[in-house]
Design brief:
Layout (H helix, E strand, L loop, with lengths): L13 E10 L3 H12 L4 E4 L25 H10 L19 H14 L3 E3 L3 E8 L2 E9 L2 E12 L5 H6 L3 E2 L15 E5 L28 E4 L4 E4 L11 H25 L4 E6 L10 E2 L7 H5 L7 E5 L3 E4 L7 E4 L4 E4 L11 E3 L8 H7 L2 H21 L8 H10 L7
The protein binds flavin-adenine dinucleotide.
The site of flavin-adenine dinucleotide has 39 residues, from α1, β4 and α8.
Length: about 425
């Protein structure tokens, strides 16, 4: 690998300007954009791929894990998109509905359009535009080359804290002892054809004979929506998805595992199922966490800690797929806890809020807060916070929490106590 640097300096046309620029259109980014737009702010969302929903669509996740507080935009999404799964009250906790990632992708396109959010697809963040320690926009790679997008507040929802890293916000990754992150998984689907199918095992794949030989050492699949579709979460590749070499290895190794697992399932339990869909990219659970004004810890989760500046709540378990890539998963039930606003705020960089799985949290704490519903909740809070910062002309760190809670309530967010 080369070890020298090239200095780049060039003029970049400004393509758009908005009050709020959201980078990344996963659960956090879509909710952040809706939250800000509903406060009357011109909002632009930049998404690297051709679809919204992040891991939930692109990674083929297809299940909303239960969080114990079905509220805000997440509740609205359930009510519109999966009305049969809508619980009567916001704190009926057990729902973990499955969904079609293709239908969610379509739903989110329409939802953001209705909310008046300008979504730019195939636009990848490249660099933060800074005035001293304040982020004032981003440079992005578009289908027409580099373009600038100016904003009064930028919300980093890339999952990898890409904007924050570029703006100089300190980050950490993985376990305290060795920095290892949760492994990656390429999700796929199989379809029941009603008759035995041709089995295909490419030469470089593994012929598993026993369940213990599988990458996760277990069968982890669900029959979906009574339509003969099997959702399969059975590949596992060690590595950090925000690193060039790790993701390069993971994309090839995970696909090799897909064909190996498919062949195993066809031989053992699903002789009539064909491989019908493979996610467009390997699913990434954990990469960079910002070091923010507060870092959520395991103790906060296990003690059920409550915070005055709460912005999201969950009782989803500690759920750590083994970072060494071996077949274990650490799963521990929780009663419920709060996530404070300060976890989304860098200490020394202004004009930037970080929402979604890359907030300030330890490896153990992020294993619980990373699920989609929580990321929607954090995103919605970030969008509203950005709007308040603009309206009151203060940095996001100095907004009134009372005002934040009041506007969140107006957007349907209820907290369980
Ligand atoms: C294999 C797997 C299984 C999972 N199972 C479940 C489950 O069953 N239930 C559940 O609720 N959760 C599950 N999760 C967790 C959940 O899907 C994610 O943690 C959640 O989607 C994170 O949301 P996010 O918005 O923070 O980030 P992401 O979903 O990662 O979205 C980030 C978005 O930012 C975009 N982006 C990234 N870089 C750039 C850039 N430079 N420029 C522009 N855009 C960019 C990406 O394309 C993406 O759209 C699973 C995750 C994985 C990987």
């Amino acid at each position: 690998m080369a070890n020298h640097e090239i200095v780049m300096q060039r003029a970049v046309p400004v393509h758009d300007a908005a009050d709020v620029i959201v980078v990344g259109g996963g659960p956090a980014g879509t909710a952040a954009a809706i939250g800000a737009a509903r406060c009357g702010r011109k909002t632009v969302l930049l998404e690297h791929t051709g679809q919204l929903g992040g891991m939930g669509t692109l990674g083929n996740v297809s299940v909303f894990m239960g969080v114990g507080n079905v509220t805000g935009i997440y509740r609205e999404i359930i009510s519109e998109f999966l009305p049969n799964s809508l619980p009567g009250s916001h704190h009926e906790s057990a729902i973990a509905p499955q969904y079609s990632p293709f239908e969610l992708r379509h739903y989110l396109n329409g939802k953001l359009e209705k909310e008046g959010v300008q979504v730019y697809y195939h636009v990848s963040f490249v660099s933060a535009i800074m005035e001293q320690s304040r982020v004032t926009g981003v440079i992005a790679n578009t289908r027409e080359g580099l373009r600038a997008f100016e904003g009064r507040v930028v919300i980093d929802c890339t999952g990898d804290a890409r904007v924050a890293v570029d703006a100089g916000v300190p980050t950490r990754s993985g376990r305290d002892e060795d920095g290892l992150t949760q492994p990656m998984t390429l999700m796929f689907m199989m379809q029941d054809t009603g008759k035995p199918v041709r089995q295909y095992l490419p030469e470089d794949c593994d012929r598993y004979e026993k369940v213990e030989q599988l990458p996760q050492g277990r069968n982890l699949h669900w029959s979906m929506m009574d339509n003969g579709t099997l959702l399969v979460n059975m590949t596992r590749v060690k590595g950090n998805g925000a690193r060039i070499e790790d993701i390069n290895y993971a994309e090839k190794e995970a696909l090799r595992q897909v064909f190996s697992v498919v062949n195993y399932l066809q031989r053992t339990s699903h002789p009539n199922h064909i491989l019908s869909h493979v996610a467009g990219q390997v699913g990434v659970r954990e990469t960079n966490q910002i070091i923010g004004r507060y870092t959520l810890t395991e103790e906060d989760l296990t003690s059920g800690r409550r915070f005055a500046d709460v912005v999201a709540q969950t009782n989803y378990e500690i759920d750590i797929h083994s970072p060494t890539g071996d077949a274990n998963t650490d799963e521990r039930k929780l009663d419920g806890y709060d996530i404070p606003y300060r976890c989304m705020l860098p200490a020394d960089v202004n004009g930037l809020i970080v929402a979604g799985r890359s907030i300030s949290a330890t490896h153990v704490a992020m294993s619980s807060m990373r699920v989609q519903a929580t990321c929607y909740a954090l995103g919605q809070a970030a969008g509203i916070a950005a709007a308040i910062a603009i309206e009151t002309d203060v940095p996001p760190a100095d907004i009134s929490i009372a005002q934040l809670h009041s506007l969140m309530a107006r957007q349907g967010v209820l907290f369980a106590r």
